[in-house]
């Protein structure tokens, strides 16, 4: 079934594509990964699950992604965070579960921080898949080759082949420098809500040690870590999607209780 057309809102000069399904709270808010979009397998699965449950579901594409305007190379964590906050504030009502995949988990953690700072306490749970918070600092910078460092210095970016797209991944100097300003893994992370992490042990992009490190920084009595022995970074196999739906369903029940 073809997805309904998105609505668009302007955030700092970019047209951000949004799909909102009305329903019961706690609602679910999808936050996709780097260079992914809101029509991917996990996002569509979550939207279909929410529809069957009569639950509100909200998703959007960051600028430079999917159906949104703007150039991908202009994107930074701060920019994509601001867009996500604008969508959340404009379209969500009541308690919400943030579901973040890969980079989306970083955005989710930063959203929880910024919303709490602004007095908005509606985030009632986080479900994080193959979470990649601080990936620019923790996973990219330590592995940069001399050639990549030179490209960053001289061109302002470097390109790398992608396993998930015909086009290479572009990493800009602005993205990496801005990443340092959005670090979350510098000490204890107080989310003020329960967190469930799903991490594949066969993930070639985000090592399982990164998820373990993140879990250790979260409040111990509020974090669940589910390790999937043969799970990869996408976590899009039928059994992975079933686990996602169960995790979100459990979080919704907990938030509603």
Keywords, please?
257 residues; eight-stranded mixed beta sheet; two-stranded antiparallel sheet; 23% strand
Largest sheet: 8 strands, mixed
The chain-level mean pLDDT equals 95
Q: Count the beta strands.
A: 10
Helix content: 25-40%
Order of helices and strands: EEEHEHEHEHHEEHEHEH
Head-to-tail CA distance between termini: 34 Å
Describe the protein in words.
Helix 2 (77-91) packs across helix 3 (103-117). Strand 9 (195-200), helix 7 and strand 10 (223-228) form a beta-alpha-beta unit. The radius of gyration is 17 Å and the shape is globular. It is built from eight helices and ten strands. It is 37% helix and 23% strand. The strands form two sheets. The chain has an eight-stranded mixed β-sheet with strand order 1-2-4-3-5-6-9-10, with helices on both faces. It has a two-stranded antiparallel ribbon with strand order 7-8. With 257 residues, it is α/β, with parallel strands linked by helices. 43% of the residues are buried.
Compact overview of the structure:
By secondary structure, the protein is of the alpha/beta class.
Layout of helices and strands, plus pairs?
Blueprint: E1 7-11, E2 14-21, E3 24-31, H1 41-53, E4 55-60, H2 77-91, E5 96-101, H3 103-117, E6 123-129, H4 135-140, H5 146-154, E7 157-160, E8 169-172, H6 173-181, E9 195-200, H7 208-217, E10 223-228, H8 238-256
Parallel strand pairs: 3-4, 3-5, 5-6, 6-9, 9-10
Antiparallel strand pairs: 1-2, 2-4, 7-8
Helix pairs in contact: 2-3
């Amino acid at each position: 079934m073809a997805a309904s057309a998105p609505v668009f809102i302007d955030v700092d000069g970019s047209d951000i594509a949004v799909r909102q399904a009305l329903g019961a709270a706690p609602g679910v808010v999808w936050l996709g990964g780097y260079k992914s979009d809101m029509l991917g397998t996990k996002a569509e699965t979550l939207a279909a699950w929410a529809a069957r449950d009569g639950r509100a579901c909200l998703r959007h594409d960051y600028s430079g992604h999917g159906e949104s305007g703007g150039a991908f190379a202009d994107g930074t964590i701060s920019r994509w965070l601001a867009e996500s906050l604008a969508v959340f504030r404009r379209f969500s009502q009541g308690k919400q579960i943030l579901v973040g995949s890969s980079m989306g988990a970083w955005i989710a953690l930063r959203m929880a921080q910024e919303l709490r700072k602004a007095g908005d306490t509606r985030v009632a749970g986080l479900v994080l898949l193959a979470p990649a918070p601080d990936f620019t600092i923790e996973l990219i910078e330590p592995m940069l080759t001399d050639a990549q460092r030179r490209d960053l210095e001289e061109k302002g970016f470097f390109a790398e082949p992608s396993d998930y797209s015909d086009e290479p991944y572009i990493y800009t100097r602005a993205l990496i420098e801005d990443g340092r300003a959005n670090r979350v893994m510098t000490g204890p992370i107080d989310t003020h809500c329960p967190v469930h992490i799903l991490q594949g042990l066969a993930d070639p992009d985000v090592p399982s040690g990164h998820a373990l490190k993140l879990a250790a920084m979260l409040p111990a009595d509020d974090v669940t870590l589910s390790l999937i022995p043969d799970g990869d970074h996408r976590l899009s196999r039928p059994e992975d999607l079933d686990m996602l739906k169960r995790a979100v369903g459990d979080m919704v029940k907990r938030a509603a209780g």
